[in-house]
Design a protein that fits this description.
It is globular and about 65 Å long. It is an alpha/beta fold. A hairpin with a 2-residue loop joins strand 1 and strand 2 (10-16). The longest helix is centred in the C-terminal third of the chain and has 17 residues, at 231-247. The protein has one domain (2-247): TIM Barrel (Alpha-Beta Barrel), CATH 3.20.20.60. The chain is 42% helix and 19% strand. It comes from Salmonella enterica subsp. enterica serovar Adelaide str. A4-669. Keywords: Lyase, Metal-binding. Residues 23-236 form the HpcH/HpaI aldolase/citrate lyase domain.
């Protein structure tokens, strides 16, 4: 899970990778403004996403769900269990962005299949007029992670229904020839230019950055949602640091 905080219209978050409702609820009460439930790199499926959505629901933190791919069937299932904000990975061009939007909309605006009687999202048809309200409740964020996507950013931003664009620094740096080094000056220049361009288009720029100085720099440039931590990283590094502190005292 990505973890984050908000300041005015900017939001910081953390990523949930552990795939457990228990840890999701723990983090939902920690003060982050949004939590990303990751289905791209973490061992999540529709059932574990549902469990985490239920765990987060009583808390102020807003859930964002990332499917493994820009797949309309997977998106439909995630929407039916209650996801309303999706982060679609590896969007390369305007056509793929339009496909992502269409997958979140009921016809005639899109291609989302109608199964509201079975869906938690509609509270099993207990929400009056859900089918006519649902489209307006969706938030679609797309992730740009390559030089190709960067070159197509202007046309992606022109797609109606795209609410924000999230920059993936790890994949972007790899695609630019600097794998494992997202802080390379060329990568940073591309990121900063993209943030400014996204904000100027009236869309929300976002990024994952655990480096505090860089995260603050992106917020200053206009980023509106910044993931500042990952649950598995917090647990792993915290456990290692605790063990090392006590191991260092043993003579």
């Amino acid at each position: 899970m990505w973890l984050g905080l908000a300041n005015s219209y900017s939001a910081d978050s953390a990523e949930l990778l552990a795939g457990a409702g228990y840890s999701a609820e723990l983090l939902a009460g920690a003060g982050f403004d949004w939590l990303l439930i990751d289905g791209e790199h973490a061992p999540n499926n529709v059932q574990t996403v549902l469990t985490q959505l239920q765990a987060i629901a009583p808390y102020p933190s807003q859930p964002v769900v990332r499917p493994s791919w820009n797949d309309p069937v997977q998106i439909k299932q995630l929407l039916d269990v209650g996801a309303q904000t999706l982060l679609i990975p590896m969007v390369q061009n305007a056509d793929e962005a339009r496909n992502a939007v269409a997958a979140t909309r009921y016809p005639p605006a899109g291609i989302r299949g109608v199964g509201s009687a079975l869906a938690r999202a509609s509270r099993w048809n207990r929400i009056p007029d859900y089918l006519h309200q649902a489209n307006d409740a969706m938030c679609v964020l797309v992730q740009i992670e390559t030089r190709e996507a960067m070159s197509n950013l202007a046309s992606i931003l022109d797609v109606d229904g795209i609410d924000g664009v999230f920059i993936g620094p790890a994949d972007l740096s790899a695609d630019m020839g600097f794998a494992g080094n997202p802080q390379h000056p060329e990568v940073q220049a591309a990121i900063e230019n993209a943030i400014v361009q996204i904000r100027a288009a009236g869309k929300a720029p976002g990024i994952l950055m655990a480096n505090e100085a860089l995260a603050k720099r992106y917020l200053e440039l206009g980023a509106l949602f910044v993931a500042v931590g990952v649950d598995t990283t917090l647990l792993a590094r915290g456990a290692e640091a605790l063990a090392q502190r006590y191991r260092a005292t043993v003579v």
